[in-house]
Amino acid sequence: MRRWKKILSASLVAVMVGSLGMTAFAEDTSANEPIDTTVSNYNLTEEETSGKNQEEIKALQQQKIDEVTQQAYDMKIASNELENWPEGPATYGEAGIVMEAKSGAILYAKNIDGKAYPASITKILTALVALENGNLDDKITITQNSVDCVAEGDAYIGMIAGEEISLNDALYALLMASANEVAYAIAENVGGLGYDGFIAKMNERAKELGAVNSDFENPNGLNAQNHYTTARDMALITQELLENHEEFKTIAQTQQYTIGATNLVNQARTFQQSDLMFYEGNDYYYPKTIAGKTGYTDEALNTLVSCAADDNLELISVVLKTHGKNVYPDSVNLLEYGFNNFAKYTIADYEDSADFKEIDPNAYVVLPENVNFQSLDYEITQDDTNSSTGTVTYTYQGNPVGKAAVTLSDEYLQKDNTENEAQVSGDKSDSETQKQAQSTIPREVILVICVIAAVLLLIIVWRAVLKHLRKKKVETNRKRRREVDKD
Question: Where in the numbering of this chain does the Peptidase S11 D-alanyl-D-alanine carboxypeptidase A N-terminal domain appear (predicted)?
Answer without folding.
Answer: 93-322
